[in-house]
Design brief:
The structure is a single chain. By secondary structure, the chain is an alpha+beta fold. The chain has one domain (2-177): Vaccinia Virus protein VP39 (Rossmann fold), CATH 3.40.50. Helices cover 20% and strands 30% of the residues. The strands form two sheets. A seven-stranded mixed sheet has the order 6-5-2-7-8-10-9. A three-stranded antiparallel sheet has the order 1-4-3. Strand 7, helix 3 (104-114) and strand 8 form a beta-alpha-beta unit. The longest helix is centred in the middle third of the chain and has 11 residues, at 104-114. The protein is globular and about 40 Å long. Mean pLDDT is 76; it is low at 1-43.
Length: 178
């Protein structure tokens, strides 16, 4: 299943370990099983992005999913006609370091509010100029602080979407639980 840089999905949280690697492809995230082929993860999902061109690409890649043009600063499932209580929120494509300064905590609180108890926020993003199109506006500790303030607990961190161990470096995929 292809998902946009910000995607909400209803899945069984216990299946997280079975989802397999997630590979970035031109700013899009692809959830793949052990074969590397896209597969449905369960219950469907929705995608949200502010960039209309990214939504055009996402709609072509996954026409079966509903896609919404929404700023994450204002995101809430109910006004979109979508039930909240997601088991998994995937934020790929450098979402957090590219947020407008001062909006980070509010965005993370909105994402956390969309999760079911025990749900996961999985966010992958660059931490330095080598991994970002612009200088970073926030750090990994900043993101962790925003998550903690939103009631999320760090449960794992990787260096890649393939779950390589994180030992520092310019890219991180963090898994936080509500």
């Amino acid at each position: 299943m292809h998902v946009s840089p910000y995607t909400l999905m209803h899945v069984d949280v216990d299946l997280y370990a079975d989802i397999g690697p997630v590979d970035l492809d031109h700013g899009q995230a692809r959830m793949a099983g052990g074969t590397g082929e896209p597969q449905a993860v369960g219950g469907g999902g929705v995608g949200v992005d502010l960039d209309a061109s990214m939504l055009d690409v996402a709609r072509k890649q996954a026409p079966e999913l509903p896609w919404f043009q929404v700023d994450l600063v204002e995101f809430a499932p109910a006004p979109l006609g979508v039930a909240g209580g997601f088991d998994l929120v995937v934020a790929a494509g450098n979402i957090f370091p590219l947020l407008a300064p001062g909006t980070e905590t509010g965005v993370v609180q909105r994402l956390s509010a969309a999760l079911s108890p025990g749900g996961l926020l999985v966010a992958g993003f660059g931490l330095d100029e080598a991994h970002l199109p612009v200088p970073p506006s926030s750090t990994l500790p900043d993101c962790d602080d925003c998550c903690a303030a939103a009631g999320l607990t760090l449960v794992d961190r990787f260096a890649t979407w393939d779950a390589d161990p994180y030992e520092g470096g310019g890219y991180a995929v963090s898994v936080h639980r509500r």
